[in-house]
Every structure is written in C-alpha cells, then in structure tokens.
Amino acid sequence: MERGEMLALCLLCWSCSVCVVTAIQRADMFPYGTLSGDLILAEGDDETSRVLPLPKTLYFYSSPFTQLYVATNGIISAQDLPMEKQYVDDGFPTDFPVVAPFLADIDTSGGRGQIYYRVTETPSVLNRVAQEVHRGFPDAKFTPTYAVVATWENVAAYEEETRTTAPSSKLNTFQAVIGYDETDSYVLFLYPEGGLNFFGTRPKESYNVEIELPARVGFSRGEVTYLIFSRTEGPHYSVTSNEQSVKNLYQVGNTGIPGIWLFHTGNHYSFDNIVPASIGGLLATSPPGGHGLPLDTTTPDFEEYPDNTFDLNNKEEEEEEDDYPLTDGDPEFQTAPAGGDHSKSLQPASPDAASSPSERSDPGPQVLHRSKDVPLNSEPRYGSEPEERQYAPPNPPEAVAEQGAQQIQEQQPQDVYPHHSKEPRLSPGGHVVSVDEEDVDFDTGVIRYTTENKETCASFQQQCSQHAFCSDYATGFCCHCRPGFYGNGRHCLPDGAPQRVSGKVSGTVTVGSTPVQLNNIDLHAYIVVGDGRAYTAISEVPEPVGWALMPVAPIGELFGWLFALELPNSQAGFKNAGAEFTRHAEVIFYPGNQRLSIIQTGRGLDDHNHLTVDTVLSGSVPFLPPGAEVTMDPFKDTYQYYPSVATSTSVREFLVVSAERGSESFSFQLKQNITYRDCQHDNRPAALETLQIAMERVFVMYVKEERILRYAITNKIGPVGVEPTEPELVNPCYAGNHDCDTTAQCVPLEGQAFQCQCATGYRGDGRNCYDIDECAEGLSSCGAHAQCVNLPGSHRCQCQSGFEFGYDGRTCVDMDECSSSPCHSNARCINGLGSFQCQCQPGFYGDGFHCSQQEGQTARPMSLCELHRDSLQSGVEVKGLPILGAFIPQCDSDGRYRPLQCHGSTGHCWCVDSQGQERPGTRTPPGTAPKDCDRADDLLRPKTLCEQQRDSVQTISPEGYPLFGAFAPQCDANGQYTPQQCHSSTGHCWCVDSNGEEIYGTRTAAGETPRDCGKPDEPERLKTQCEHHRDSVQTTSPEGYPIVGAYVPQCDANGQYRSLQCHGSTGHCWCVDSQGQERAGTRTPPGTAPKDCDRPDEPERLKTQCEHHRDSVQTTSPEGYPIVGAYVPQCDANGQYRSLQCHGSTGHCWCVDSQGQERAGTRTPPGTARKDCDRPDEPEHPKTQCEHHRDSVQSTSPEGYPIVGAYVPQCDANGQYTPQQCHGSSGHCWCVDSQGQERGGTRTPPGTARKDCDKPDEPERPKTYCEQHRDSAQSTSPEGYPITGAYVPQCDANGQYTPQQCHASTGHCWCVDSNGQERAGTRTPPGAPPRDCDKPDEPERPKTHCEYHRDRGQSTSPEGYPIVGAYVPQCDANGQYLPRQCHGSTGHCWCVDSQGQERAGTRTPPGAPSVDCDRPVPVAPTQRPESVCERWRASLIEHYGGKPDPQQYVPQCEPDGQFSPVQCYGETTYCWCVDQDGREVPGTRSHDVVKPACLPSVAPPIVRPLPRPSVTPPPNTDITLLYAQGQKIGVLPLNGTRLDASRSKTLLTLHGSIVVGIAYDCKENQVYWTDLSARTINRASMAPGAEPKILINTNLVSPEGLAVDVDRRLMFWVDSNPDVIERSNLDGSERQTLFDTDLVNPRAIIVVSSTGTLYWTDWNREAPKIESSSVDGQNRRVVVSDGVGLPNALTYDSSSGQICWADAGTKRLECISPDGSGRRVIHSSLNYPFSMVYYRNHFYYTDWRRDGVIAVSKDSSQFTDEYLPDQRSHLYGIAIATTHCLSGSH
C-alpha cells in the first residue's frame, strides 16, 4: 500500500475511535481576495506570478529562500518555474523547490476561476497559523512572524480545444498557507467541503487516450548542489498517491479537522524531510449552524482590538440588525450556514455563551471550533452594509462587567463624532473606533502586549532601532528614540532631515467600464520635513487610469500625515506608527457612487533608511477626459487616535476642467484607518486624542508623455480648532516660510524669531548643511567584523564576508558556513572565524569539497565497525613513538561489533549494541568478570548525566590517534559521579557534588594527598579571582577533544594565585602579583631555574618593546581556547629581544636585530643547525631567480604532509640553476639553460642514461607542430594518475607527423597529412589491417551531405562502448543517399528523397516486405505518419513488456513526432543531446541534474496563414534589444536601462526557422542571424519592409553563436556539430575555418572590434572553458576553465574591459579580465541563461526557465527588470541595436 493511502487509512481508522467533526466550509478558509490585499495571478494555462519578495528569510527544508512564485498549476515555488510541460505531468521529485497543495494541469483561461496570493503579517492570520501548529505539534515553540496565503478559487482543469464536448463544470477551490519565523516553517493545506470536484488532469500529450493523472500533493526540495558544481535530486514528500487519496483530502485531515492538513516543512539548523501533524478527524454531516474554526489564540503576543463593537444597552431595530450583524469574533472567520442564511451564522453572541446550559447540553460527540471571546483582528472583508448605518464607540469595560451574562444586544446608530463629554474612559488596553459602519471591514491589524511571558529589554532589545534606547516597565518594554531622532522607537529617523519613500503600486482599477491592471509600478515620494511639503510620483501609469486617478490625492496624503509640519502640542504620524503600519482607505465618488479601495502597507526602512510602502488599488473611478485639469481647494481632515489606530472620515470637493465638458464639480468621501504597533507599557494616558491635518496646497497632474502621476501637498498637523487669528504673528517655523536648509530643523524662538539647526547627521550653519561621513570620521557604531556604509544623514553597518548579524541585530558574529553542509558527504566541516575548512574523513582523500576513497578497499563496503577499527591506525607510529592507550574496537567476521568490547590498555570491558554504543551498566573494571553480553538487558535505565558526560569525551582524534589530556569523569556502578574525581593526565584530584560540580577548596595538585570527599564540607566560601580564572579555561573543545596548550593558572588552598606560575605545555615559568599579573623580568624558559618569587621586586623598570610585544600576543581566544600556532617573542633578563628567536609550533628559528626584526638569510627549518646570531652578517646577496623559484614551491601541505609530485628546482651554491634538473617523483631528468628553461631534446625518462648537460647543444631547432601537439597532450593528471583514453600523436625523428597515427586506447588507426589532419577514408577499426599511408590519395572530392550525415553517426561512445540503436545512413558510391534506408538495430526500412528525408508512408516493420522506393507512395493529406521517434519509442516499450524501468531508455518525442533535443535514461539524470535523427551529439553526456543545453534542429509545425517575412522595426527607439524566439526575431526597446515591454513587437517572422545566434551591424543598421533549421546564415536591413537575404547555405550543420566585427567588416560563427569556428566577410565571401580542433560544444562567440580579439565558449561537459584568439586565428589560449559548468552566454563589458559570461550549470554571472585576473561574481543564482548582452552597467540575458529577458544590475548585483513575451517558448540569442555605434561594440 502506498504511503499516502496508509496515511489516509490510518487517519480514518484512528479518528473513528476518537471524534467526529465536520468538514471545513469555504468561509472557514483564510480570508482572500483583493480586499484582503491579495494580488491576482493572470489568467491562463501556464502562468507564473512575478517574484513575491519575502520580508524575512524562509527556511524550506534547511535551505534559506527570500522569494516565492505562485503558479497556475497548484504549486508555490521558491524558484522561477520552467514551462509546465517540464513538470506538470511528472511525479515527485521536481528539480525546483515546490509546495504543492494540488499539482495538476489547471487552466484559468476565459474567466474560469481566480488565483490569489499575498505575504501578510496581519496578527489574525498569524494567530490562526500559530494555533493550528500548536494543535498539530503541541511541543513546538513557534510564533509565526509572516505568512504567505495562496488561494485557488473555482479553478478548472485544462481541456484540449479540439475536444467536441462542452467545457467541464467541475471546479476546484483549495488554499495553501505558509507560516514561518526566524528558524522554522509550517504549511497548511485547506480543502473545503465541495471544493474538490476533479481529482486529476489528462496529460497534454495523451494522443486522445482517455487517461487521467491524479493530482500530486506534497513537497519537493528540488535539486541540491554537491561537489561544488554538481547537482542531484533533493528530498521530497508525497501526501497522495492515487485518485482515492486525492478524494480523501477534504474528508480527512491530520489536524483533527477534515480538510485541514499541517506539515512542518523547514528548520534553519537541520531538517531531513517533511513532518506531518498526526491528529485525526473524520467527516460528519455539517450542523445547521455552519462550521467554524477554533480561534482561541495560543500566542499572547498577538492579541488585537476589535474594530467596532455594539452598544450593549440598545435593543431596538432588531429586525433590521439581523441583516447586518456583527459579533465580537473576528469577521475574517465569520461563516455562512449551509442554507445561506447569514443572519444565523453572524448573530451576536453572549460573552459567556460557551458556558451556557443550552450549549453544554448539546448532544453528540461534536467538536466545536469557534471561540466566543476572540478579539477582532481581521484582514479586510468588505460587506454590503448601507451607508447610513454607523457605529459609535463601545461601552466601557465597567459597563460590560455590570451586564453579567446578558446577551449582547444591538445598537441604535449614532453620530460618527460622539460628544467627548459622553465618551467612556478607556482602561489601559481598551480600544474605541468611531468610524462609519463599513469600517468594520477594515483591517485593524493591532497588536497589544500582555503580561503573560513578559518581554524585557534583555531579550528583545533588538526590536528597537539602532538610534533608540530600551526601557523596561511593569508589564513589558518600550523603545524610545534617542535625542536627535524621532519615531516610535522601533524606527527612528534623524530630526529635520528630508525623507524618501519608495514602493510599488498594484491592483485593478476600473475606469468607467474598462478595467486597467497596475502591475507593480513604481511609487516614489520626497518629503521636506521642515515645511511639510510631500511630493509623490507614480510612474508608468497607463493613460486612461492616469487621468482618472488625479483626484485621488489621498494616495499621497499618507506621507503628509507621516511627516507633516508639527504645530505646538502635536506630533506627526511617524512618531506613532513608525515604518510598519497598514492603512485602509475607501474613496466613494459622487454622483456616480464609484468606490476605490486603497491599502497601503509600510514595510519598514530599507538599507538607505528610506521608508518602503506598497500600495494596492482596487475598485472603480469616474472617467476623466484626456487632457483634463483637476483643482482641489485646501481642506482640513480630523484624525481620531486610539491605542494603535488612527481613523478619519471627510468629504472633499474637486473641480475638473476639460475641453470636452468645460468645468464640472465632483466630490468624494474618504474613510480611512491606519493601524500600527503601539507600546502601552509606559503607562501613557489612554484618553482619546484628536488632531487636525491642514492641507494648504494641493497640486495634482498627469504627464501623458512620461506616464507619470504626480501629487504635491503641503501638510501641517495641530490640535483641532487651534488657529492664530492673525497669520502674520505665526512663527516662520510653523508657517513653513523660513529659510532653513531642507536638511535643517527650524527651532521657533520668541515671537517671530527662529533658529536653524542642521539635522542629525548633518553639519553647517543651518542655512547650508552638509552630510557628515560617520564612516570616514570614525563616528560609526559599527563593531568588530563590520564595515561602515555612509548614508545621507546617517550610516549603516554591514557584516564582513563570513559574518552575519547576531540575535541583537547589531553585533556581527561568525557565520556558521558548516550549517549549510558545503563539504563533501565524506568530509567534515570545520567552522572558523569568518571562514570554514573542509577535511576529508579518514579513508578518503581530496580537498574536502570532493573526497575519493583510497585504494585497497575490500570488495564489500566496509562496515561501521571496520571503518572505526581501521581509522585508529593501530600499527602506525607517531613521531617515532608507538601509539599508547588507543581503544581499538573488535569486529566479527561479518564486520559487526562484537557484543563484548575491552580496552587493551586499561582492562575495562563493556557490552555494546549493534552501533557500537556502550550499553549502560555493563562496564567492568580490570580484574573483575565481564558481563554476559548475550543476556537480554534488565529493564534498561537511561544513561545518567555522568555516563553521558563520560561517553561524550573524545579520546581519539579523527585521524585515529589517541588524544592526551582529555578528562573523562569516573562514574560508580549506578552511573553516579564518584565523590572523588582525578585527571589522569595532570594528576589533579578534587571532590564533586551529585551533579559532578567541583566542590571549591577540595582540589589537590599531583603528589599532594587528596581530600577526604566523605567528610562534610566546611561552610563554602565564594570563588576567588584565581579560581574563576582557572575554572574558565577551556581544556576540552565542543566536540569533546582535549585542547593542547591551554594555560591553567595555579591557585593555593585559599584560592589565591600561587606566586610562581608555570605553563604546563611550554615549560615557561614566571612570578605573578596578587592579581595574577606577570611581574616583569621574572619569566624563565624551560630547563632553567625559576625565579625566587618570594624575594621583593627590585624597583620596577618600564616594560621594553620586547616585553610589550610578548605580552600582547593572544595565546587564548575569547572563549577560553588556546590559539595554536601563535608566535611569542623571547626576551632576555633585561627585556631585550634574544638574538635567536624560535617559533614554538613550527620549529623555525632566525636571528633578529635589536628591534626584533628578522635578519635576512638567517631562518632555518626545524631539525637543521641554527645560525650563530652573534656572528656579523656576511654581505647578503639578493635571492637569485632559481632560489626564488625553489622557495616558492610548496612541498608541504598546510597540515604538514609532503605534497607528492611537486617539482622543486635545484640551485648551486651561487644560487644558479644546476645544468641538470630532475623531478623527484617522476624520475624524469633534463638539461636547462641559465634561466632554468628546459633545453629541447634533453629529457630522459626514469631508468635511462641521462644527457651530458655540459656538452654544448647541437644547433637547436624549434619544436615542430607535431612535437608541440604531442607535448601538449596531457597523458597524466595533475595528481600523477594516467589519463585513460588520451590520444598522443606520434612524431618521427625530425619532429614531423608519422604518416600513420593510431590511438593506443581504442585501436583505431588512420593516415594523416603533413599537418596531422586525418585523410578522409583512411580510418580503420581495431583488428582491421591499417591502410598503406604512403600510397597517394586519389583526387578527393568534397564530402556529400549523406557522407557528412553518415560520418556524424556515432556507433561507438567516447568510452569505446557500442551505442545500441544508432542509425547510420547508407550512401552509394557517389555519396548520395540510397533510395532505401534501413535501421540496423530495429529492422525498420523506409524510402528517402535526395536529401535523405523519409518519404511518408514508406516505412515497413522488420520482417515485412519492403516498399519499392522507385514508385511514389500516396499519403492521406490529413494523416501524419508515425515518426521514427514514435515508432522507436513504441518498439522499446513493447520490448520492455509495456513497463520500462525508471533507468531504462525510452526515446522522448515532441508533439510533432520529432526527437526531443534532450534525451535521458528514464527518470535518471544521465542525459545527452540528439540531432533531428535521434543521433547523440558527441560531448553532451551529463550526469548532472542540470540537463545539457540542447537546441532543436527541426522547426515547429507552421501555423497558417503565414505573414509576409518582412521587417517591421519599432518607431522612435534609440536603444533596442533584439532577441531570437524560435521562428521570429523580436524587438524590445529600452527606456534608459528599463525594459519597455509596452513597445515590444515582432521585427521579423521566419516560419520554418529556428533562429539561434543573432548579431547587429551598427554601421549599416543590419541584423544577422543563424538558422538552425535551414542551416543558413542570413541578414536583413532594419528598414521597414526589408526582406531577409541568405548569405551562407552550404556546409553548415548546426550554426549557433554569431558575431559581427563592425570595424573589419567580418562575421564569425560557431558550428557545434562539426565543432568548428569560421569567419567570412559580411556578404558571406572569403569564408575560412579558424579552428577545427579541441572543440566539443562551442556555443557563444563575441568579437571585440576595438582590440581585434575573438572570444568563445565551449560547454564540453567534461572540460568546459572560455577561449580567445585574434580575429585572424592567432594566439589561441584558454581564458578561464576553472569553476565553469555550462557557459552558454558571453558578452563584453566595455566599461571595465572584462569578459562576462552567464553559466547555466553553476547558475552564476561572472566577469574576468582578458589576462585571467580580477575574476568576480556579479550574481550567483541565475535560472537558466542562454545568451547575454551588456549596456550601461546592466546585463540583459535570455532565460530558458523564465522564457523571457532578465535584467541584472552590475552595481547592485540584483535583478532589476524582466520581460516575458505573450507567447511562451525558449528565447535564444540576444543583441543590442543602436542608432549609433557604442564604444566596444562587439
């Protein structure tokens, strides 16, 4: 039974015995829709959302992600998605991260459903997620900070257009919610009752076979990286396995509620696979009252206030109220009953309803899921209440208490502005909102602090701004901005400085009857705080909505409220709300009653201290004529403030003047509330506060040409009704007419006087202020391992590489790179300060990123016991001494641990389990009978603390050597600490308590009589400084290994420092004072008599330079660990540097001068005689070239092991190269000249007589081409291993190619010409007699198309294995195709035309009579014959018995029957490219998850009617991107550096083509391209109506990359099948081959005209590289080959002179200088780049996963823009077209 079926069955069975609950209803889902702030995914069959950035990192499995995508087909991914055909019909795992609530082929075209999504931090949503998690995982410590909600509502399955039946009415609704915090993530899947009506979808390529694939539900991590550049499948988890398990989704659940499924999906530190919740629930009939969900929050941090409540005294208008009720619950979760009667499900409830007798007596074992006392904390859900109904503030808490258990009654509508004299006084935490009734739908989003689990500054100070201080109060903490800054404490900005705002505007606005989509267009605002001016600009606003939105100035009014000019006794909104808030506003226009919703969310401050605000608009606005002008008079708006919310309602008028309509007056009503996080712990009065905003100047306009909508408003905030009667008496600071700098604060003085003070972070006289560079002036607050970045008026700190901000958000702490497992699976990761190391485990060798097993391993894999045993290296000596004390486990013949283990040195014995772990209570000391390990354990007690500590101590190093100095505690027979503990290495003993803690004052040194630990303790004294110091020293590492070299201070019986201190490891001794400080001049080295520390000091002299140096050396880390390898200088008795200095760790010694500086030439390695430092220096000669060369060679690894194979040159006494040089490892010897260069012809292999290097050379001839070729052939790897299969050419005595060449590995032989080029037709296979190469060739004719085709047919793989199933065409004597062709493996035969193309209807299966190929064969015009691929596929499937295994090869065919360009073995990652006949393209085989970048060779079927293939250039464009997309060339204009998608169009349609490479000639305005299908190179003028012209159409097989040299009038291209690089003139003449060797898969090519240099990529899967040469083919060299995977794209950065490439294998965009220096990574997480260009600090590349053009900024290394064509298919080449030639054009 499949896993999903088992899970569903177990849940069903378990739940039957526990409880029966009702399925969730649609209303029980999390709120969704545009009024909840959702974005809407575009309609279609295969749509993917734009990137959804996450405010904080989400951990999925254990990987961090910062963005998500929502797709049509029922999935959420952390990575951009490929086309649906690459995953929608496949099972798990996917090759990209997936959360799949219902993965199937879904189609929302034609209005069939909507898909909504958003990221939210609304407390109501977070409360509910937290509650579900705590119910499903009771032990989880989880408080979500963000949630992602995605909803598929009434979506349909994809159906083929050709089907005659009407579209299915089956629609599905489901939801996925991802909740996460800093460390964990959980996912909820919700399936409401009746929400699933189809349970799978038909595959698109089902060929009319009625099959249906059940939906996939679950999770997949996607491909993961290993060995740096390789990728493999990650873990995955499936919930469903067949149709029945899909049907069960809404009938059962794992949270106790049918239809709700919960999973733990990720953790920051370690996470193996998905963990489901395990609480059952069985579906029952829904009760009449509907069904709700439990809302009693389990997270006290997120309690909220209700937006509105009812008056508890008014009982009138009951009937009317039934239609528009409210409860004290959350309207986000108000549900409708089954019958649709909303009045019952939304009926107000009693505060004590849960305990009423009627409910307690309700029969049946039903589980109720609604709490009656949940605070209102909704996201918006707009209702249909009438406008005239309004709510008043709620009753005071006293009134509620008086009413006791009365029912909540309904209320008489009251005025919006109640009389203040009648307002109830709020108790702390109370909440009043006095707004229109419809405001109930607005999200309050309010967070109230509670006294439960009181938060303090000590734990939560990181929530405060870096410019704030934290204060603790009785109920919690609050943040307060420091002087010079203002805000709410969580966000603080410098006083007086202008503020900037950025964000996005999205949503749908209906103008008249036309809906207009706003897709994340930019919003920017600039506010001059000193006078309250707020400027707002929204760019790229479409014309109809741009005019219509002019009256909607409230969009920009938010920024006026935040940063208004403050009049006395008032404060602007930022001081309340800070930078995180939610504003909900509704604008109702009159007379048309159009409604527009505005939701604005403050996301915080960005890295530049700019406020980020996102805006969502939805609804309708009146149509305004184009060219209209809008005038708005000054007005005032009154804001009412309550804890954590501000509200206002106002009516405004505006005038519209247009040529068509003249002057018209309109008005609108604005209702809004702004919710934010308020701190109530500082006991501020909770009285109602009212402030008034005066908007004195309002200016609005829409600029049609720039498509920019602008608002400019001057704002002042002050108390209501407080206005001076004489404006001329107003202080200029309040009037805003002062002359202070925009970066200054106006400080009012007496009367009209004022003072200008530069804002915090600025300097000047107030009239002119300048930014202070805190970084340059050393004023920053950045700590260790951080760097300072200056900002206008401020600065920020960013951690250095290898560090990250700690919990407090301020301190940079070491980043634990090891947590992401960067090392090989057979290596261990060692984290260091700011870096990490990878070391291969014992038994493996390598660099830690790739570890290989050492030779000599046994046939079967070694068991754990054998690995353990062999790792101890029992027979090896260390430094000449035998290993003592190492425990070597004993294994039986099968490699398992023997049940009884004994330690050979100590005599202890114990029993172990199958993993070699000691069984508690079985250890026996030497001399006692060991336990019988075959007897079953008595009732096994858990290990005690002593046994756990004892067993955790590491006594053996990873390399198998014993570790000395580790303290292992001694436990008695019951596992308790023995009262007396002793350290076997140091001899110290001490008494411990029952927890193993040392009892102070009981420690005795070696040789002293130990204390009697049975005697009762004397009254314990406090630890002394010495004892604190001694006990703080770490002698054991966190991994349990002893730390060698730790200095442990010695204390006397009273806990005071002993006057004489000695270092146990180094032997140095010195005297200390009472504080443990070393007394100068008392240190003695090992072996000398220590000082008498009881003698008084002579008058103390000042420390010398040497003593300062010595004492400043840190030998112990802050954590108490010794720092290995620290050099400590040695000083004599007078404090001067000793003339001879030695390094204690390395053993090197050297002489120094009086300043401690090393004297050149005096350093000696360990083990050699030291220099006499008292002898004067001989005149020193500078190092010779040989000595420099010799000393630079690394012959020893950092770990001290010799490096095998390193060549070290030999120098004579004068430092010159000895004439004869020999390689110590290989045994080769050769003669060199005075420069150390090898003399040609002098090298001798090992065992042969060496050359006499003193004999003068015969006149030396230069190396021939054959010798260069031979010597460049690498037959030995860098590690010294022979490279199997390398072909090494054979040269004669004169260095010329021998006429016959043979490949030693394969046995093939062939004849070559004088240039070593193979002579056609001379190759013979192994075993066949070779050709006589001295016989002259008959006159050779050029190869025909058939012969090219035949010779490309690879019947043998590069490894020499035959390729089964390869079709090789048959040619006649003249090289033409034989009319009848047969496949040697399958037996099929068919007729072909003169081009070798199969004639339809002529194919016959094996054994059938062949067709007469000389007669024509009629074919039905509407029938497509079965293709070769389809026949071969059917044949193999039949051969496999109809069910091929996952690893068996089955050909993959395209819908039109052609071979798919990528072929793979079943479901494995073993893939390769094929041509149109299914033949493998050499050099493309890959075992990576990243499949090879294969190109199709057959154009898609032609769709008629065909447009005329003529050029249609875009109008009025200076800079345009040209991109190739299959059968067309598209144009994409640039607006600056932004992609102008609105003006994109098709430049040229080329049906039947596959356009790949593309280039542009800026001098003649011509576009050039390669056509893979037609095998041609073409060009066309960019003039309107121009038609394409073929330039080259012969001897091209697979032309790809193309480049134009505009200066030399040349073009260059690569042909990836014959693997050649060619060039010609721009008209195709004077064609010549530049390179035809050492190329495997050449792809991209560029030419830098200014330098005459050619660059190209070769994505050879075995050895990818980027090469260069001159344009005439000279000076060929490799530019880069390390760290390259699949280099598809290549471009030239003219500003830096670097070559840049985008790699689909490593996913990186990198640049490097032509000389190989300055390599840097621009972006490290691309998708699947194919081609790329550079323009104005931006890279533009085509992407195969996104199927679009992506822009990346070179400066910020961020994605800045993307363009996705309407027709989704792969984009190939890209070029840039300009009206003038750019510098560095290529």
Describe the protein.
This protein is globular. The two termini are 61 Å apart. The protein is mainly β and 1786 residues long. The strands form 29 sheets. The chain has an 11-stranded mixed beta barrel. Strands 2, 7, 8, 9, 10, 11, 18 and 19 form an 8-stranded antiparallel beta sheet that branches. The protein has 20 helices and 92 strands. The model is unreliable at 1-20, 281-452, 873-883 and 1354-1362 (pLDDT under 50).
Distance between the termini: 61 Å
Proportion of β residues?
25-35%
- How many helix segments? 20
Structural class, please? mainly beta
Q: Which oligomeric form is depicted?
A: single chain
Low-confidence stretches: 1-20, 281-452, 873-883, 1354-1362
Count of beta strands: 92
Spatial arrangement of strands, main beta sheet: 25-26-27-37-36-33-34-35-29-30-31
Apparent shape: globular
Average pLDDT for all residues: 78
**Main β-sheet, in a few words?**
11 strands, mixed, barrel
Provide the gyration radius in Å: 41 Å
- Proportion in helices: under 10%
Quick overview of this protein structure:
The protein is mainly beta. It is built from 20 helices and 92 strands.
